[in-house]
Design brief:
This protein has one domain: NADP-dependent oxidoreductase domain (TIM Barrel, Alpha-Beta Barrel). By secondary structure, it is α/β, with parallel strands linked by helices. The chain has an eight-stranded parallel beta sheet, with helices on one face. A three-stranded antiparallel beta sheet has the order 1-2-3, with no helix packed on it. A two-stranded antiparallel sheet has the order 7-8. The longest helix has 15 residues. It is built from eleven helices and 13 strands. The two termini are 27 Å apart. It is globular, with a radius of gyration of 19 Å. Strand 2 and strand 3 form a beta hairpin. Helix 1 packs across helix 2, helix 2 packs across helix 3 and helix 5 packs parallel to helix 6.
């Protein structure tokens, strides 16, 4: 994948074989909250610091998150690679969200997202989940038609399931897979990352700091466990990461660099709910990449977990 420079410090990677060049640190917008002014200010600061990938979803805060992103990118649309997601719908009278990957719903939902985002096109439209029971051919047809209509530039899926990812790799022209990937969630290393690297499809890694477990201040979060890890295992992993901290690379930034060390990973999209968090995440772009020896140390401290379902 082509790699270049963004500004003076933010590296850009090509998303799959697309024309989209994304800064390696994006912004996961889900954590921004529902108040317009502080959320817009955070997005503006991110853009000013070289972030260009903004990831949202119609699901987040029942559409409010897309509305906030839409307000924030007014007058700056050309600076943004805008990614959103589809597949969860509200049915009147029914509590919660219902999964609907049908062609009819996707083609209806895109117009609602475009309206909230105040734009006439989406750079990356992602299926927000999925199973093998879905009408996959119909879902792909919907995305392909939206491309032809110029409403989206490219499409991808957000999934952690190897069996679903394989289906889309084989049958569609996805350019990316959003996948949870971190030092303590290495499941993608077994099958997903090698497959996507071979097929020139990019990973957008979410959760690189594991909900704060891998941040310097994450001791209390580690005490609660994470995935199949016990608190004791997490504290051991945190000690290993702490040993790799340098003057210009914190524990959280080391965790972000671990995800970015994978060739298939084009970008990570950590969330931020405060300016401090945002600045810390973005600073990982100018921190030193991990050496092969450092990556080896992390892997020795953090045994690779495996998928047991959805293989």
């Amino acid at each position: 994948m082509d790699k270049g420079q963004m500004g003076t410090s933010m590296k850009k990677n090509r998303l799959g074989t697309s024309e989209l060049m994304v800064g390696e640190i994006g912004l996961g917008c889900m954590s921004l909250g529902t108040e317009l002014k502080p959320a817009v200010e955070l997005i503006h600061e991110a853009l000013d610091l070289g972030v260009n990938l903004l990831d949202t979803a119609d699901l987040y805060d029942a559409g409010r998150n897309e509305e906030i992103v839409g307000q924030a990118i007014k007058g700056r649309r050309d600076q943004v690679i805008l990614a959103t997601k589809v597949g969860n719908r509200r049915i009147p009278g029914k509590e919660g969200w219902s999964w609907d990957p049908s062609k009819a719903y996707i083609k209806q939902a895109v117009h609602e997202s475009l309206k909230r985002l105040q734009t006439d096109y989406i750079d990356l439209y992602q299926l927000h989940g999925g199973t093998l029971d879905d009408p996959i051919a119909e879902t792909i047809e919907a995305f392909e038609e939206l491309k032809k209509e110029g409403l989206i530039r490219y499409y991808g899926i957000s999934s952690i399931r190897p069996n679903v990812i394989r289906e889309y790799v084989e049958k569609s022209s996805i350019v990316s897979v959003m996948n949870q990937y971190s030092v303590v969630d290495r499941r993608a290393e077994e099958e997903v990352l090698p497959l996507l690297e071979q097929k020139e499809i990019s990973i957008i890694a979410r959760g690189p700091v594991a909900s704060g477990v891998l941040a310097a201040s994450g001791t209390a979060k580690a005490d609660k466990g994470y995935l199949d890890y016990t608190p004791e295992q997490l504290h051991h992993i945190r000690q290993g990461l702490a040993g790799l901290v340098t003057d210009d690379r914190s524990m959280a930034q080391t965790a972000i660099r671990y995800a970015l060390a994978q060739p298939a990973v084009a970008a990570v999209v950590p969330g931020a709910s405060s300016r401090t968090q945002l600045l810390h995440n973005i600073a990982a772009a100018s921190s030193a990449p991990l050496t092969p020896a450092e990556i080896q140390v992390i892997r020795e401290q953090s045994p690779a977990n495996r998928y047991t379902q959805h293989r």
